[in-house]
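Batch manifest, entry 17 of 40.
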Amino acid sequence: MVRHESFFDSLAVLDPHSTEWQSGLAGLGALRLVDAAIEHGHLARSDWSARRTVRDAVEAVSEGNPIRGILSRLLDEVEKPVPEWKTVAASLVSYGRALDFDGRWVLATNVFEIASEVATANGAWSVAVEANIALGGSARRAGNWKKSHAGYAEALYLAGGLGDVASSLTVRVGMANTQLARGNLVEADRLLTSVVTEADAESLHEVAADALHSLSSVQHNRGNLADAVTTAYEALGKASNPTRKDTILADIAAYFAELGMHDAARDAHLIVSVTSRYQWVRWQAMLNLMELAAQDGAEQDFDRYASELATAELDPRLRAYYLFYRGIGCLGFGREREGRESLEEAERFASVKGIHQVSFEAEKALSRTTELTRAPSAVAATHSDRVRPDTQDIANSLSHLREMALSSTQHV
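Output type: structure tokens
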């Protein structure tokens, strides 16, 4: 097998002038320098031209892309006369996480595998555990069950040898997520419930938050939306990791939207849109707010969000969904020409970028434009007698948090 074959495959289908191609080329170049350094223990002086070429590729990546800084730090370490291999492995994990966060799971899996190799070969056991946990997750999201299982198994073995309880429990959360992905809700529930109990007993709040968040997904899959809201909100209270807080809030918003409590869903998305430290996450929240505005018949809000996102430097996945939801929204507001044009662009763009789900949905919507073109009526509010008191309390808390978040940004 060609080393880093997934990167070559990815580059082969991308436009060489696109930002994704430039980012992928820089990543591939950095990984090949890591390979050369591993082979010889360092980079030979004769490799100066290769190093310059990779540096140029990294510097060509957009300054707003976090991958640029991650790869720069990786190169700084690899180019040292005697690299600190633990730092190299940790930088590779950071690069893998950035790819994973961007939905490029096959590439992330490749990077986590290299990170595991480097960490294990150099006795950086804690980094090896982290790399294998991340490998298990990215491979699962890519649908590679074999690699996912192998990653989790290696992480569990290493964590056990280190006496690392937190990592061992985190591995079990990953295994539960695999059961969830495969539809075994009973086993996922059992694993996650046991992790929450053990994590609470050890005061491992972040691990408990992770398990509770996944448990809320199990409840959601069972149709227990009120329970999902309560469990996710409990996870939010235990979480300290900003990225985890963002994802939990996004899921709480989705649960509230399904309950018909759009005000609460909007509050959750608004909190993320103004507090997340990641621009990509803020854009994702704004996209969700645009979709909610369309569902609620709030045409001015819809147009405001659509206008802001139109000029944003969205990645391909967000751009495809933006075009799709804009098209659906315009049709709902009776603007058939705009809606059809946006859906046609969504179908073309998603097809070129290989985002097949959006391409399929856009094509399906185009066949129903007459049916979808109508002046929407606002979604009826959920009746208070159908809302559990604890669910309403959480909605009230989010309203308060939203006011605090908006107030803090106004005073910056």
